[in-house]
Every structure is written in C-alpha cells, then in structure tokens.
Specification:
The chain has 189 residues and is α/β, with parallel strands linked by helices. The protein has helices spanning 13-23, 40-49, 60-69, 84-87, 105-112, 123-140, 149-160, 183-186, and strands at residues 3-8, 29-36, 54-57, 76-78, 94-97, 117-120, 143-146. The chain contains 8 helices and 7 strands; from the N terminus they run E-H-E-H-E-H-E-H-E-H-E-H-E-H-H. The protein is globular, with a radius of gyration of 18 Å.
C-alpha cells in the first residue's frame, strides 16, 4: 500500500536524508506536502522530482520568487501553514516535522490532526510546546515518534520506566553550537 506523507523542512539535512530514502523506494510513497523557509529553488526541484503538488514556503520573498518560476501552476504554493486545511482531505500515514527551532512548533501542531504518525526531529518544539503537542496527539489519536537522539532517548526511558524511578533527566550540550566552543566562551552563556 502506498504511504501518503508530508515533510516539514524538506530542504534541511533531515528532510533531504528522508527524501534520499524515499528515492530508493519511490513507488511505495506519495508525498503530499513539502515545506521550506527560504530555499525555494531546492524545494521546487524536490517537488518536481517527487511529483509533489503542494508546498509551503514561509519566507514571503522566497514564496513570491517561487510563484514566478511556477508559471504553469503545476504546484500549489502556499505562504503559511494555515493552508494545510485546504490540502488534506484524509489522514496522512506519516509526517516528518524537521523545521528547526521554535518555528517548528506551529506547523507541528497544525499537521498533527492530519496524520496517523508524526516523527519530530525538533527538540525546541518539544521542549517549549510538549503540553500542546501531547494534547493534540491525544485529541487526534496521532502516534508520536521522536527522531533526534536526545528526545528519542528521553522518550524511551520515560516509556520503559515508572515515573517514581526517574528523579532527573540531564541533557548535555555536547553538540550543535557548543561542539567546538572553548569552555571559557561557554561560561559567558
């Protein structure tokens, strides 16, 4: 059975890696939506390659430029995630939410009602909005799949332990912007 999917943040590393996987088994997937903030050229290229008919470009200048390129209107281009109410008429099988930072929270909350499974690779959205995400997951009977290593590990521990057995969870700042930062520079934060 063909899996219907959406990728929020398809021009980032996680989105591109997922598309590389799908490329190897293209006949079993139908991508309904792709999104990006500014990288409209790559997004249009992805949409054309995978025959995606709906894309969201949240940066207004990039959205306008993409519309100029898409003269024959083969792709429906939207500027906000509020448009997803127009796109989905039945639930998707799977959504990857990989929009970085807090910008990923709103689209994640919006798309949960339209997907059976949501994989979230954005720890900022989870940390800042977990109570909102959890409420939407429960309300819409959507299953949650943490993708990034930190929140996958926490989710695994929480789901395999009793609450009273967990006193603290420590997240180290071992990667990202701190990876090659000297200790004396970190003290300023």
């Amino acid at each position: 059975m063909i899996k219907r999917i959406a990728i929020l943040g398809s021009t980032g590393s996680i989105g591109k890696n997922l598309l590389d996987i799908i490329k190897k088994d293209k006949k079993n997937f139908k991508i309904i939506l792709l999104s990006a903030r500014k990288n409209y050229k790559l997004l249009l290229k992805q949409a054309n390659y995978f025959s995606v008919r709906n894309i969201v470009i949240t940066d207004y200048k990039s959205y306008k430029k993409a519309n100029v390129i898409n003269k024959n209107k083969t792709i429906h281009i939207y500027n906000t995630f509020e448009a997803i109410d127009k796109i989905f008429h039945k639930k998707l099988d799977y959504t990857m939410s990989s929009i970085i930072g807090l910008q990923g929270l709103y689209p994640t909350l919006e798309i949960i009602k339209y997907t059976k499974y949501i994989a979230i690779a954005n720890k900022e959205a989870i940390i800042c909005g977990w109570s909102l995400i959890k409420k939407q997951l429960e309300k819409n009977k959507t299953k949650f799949l943490p993708v990034d290593s930190e929140h996958f590990s926490i989710w695994k521990i929480i789901n395999s332990s009793k609450d009273e057995n967990i006193d603290h969870i420590f997240l180290t700042a071992s990667g990202g912007p701190f990876l090659n930062k000297p200790i004396n520079k970190i003290k300023k934060y």
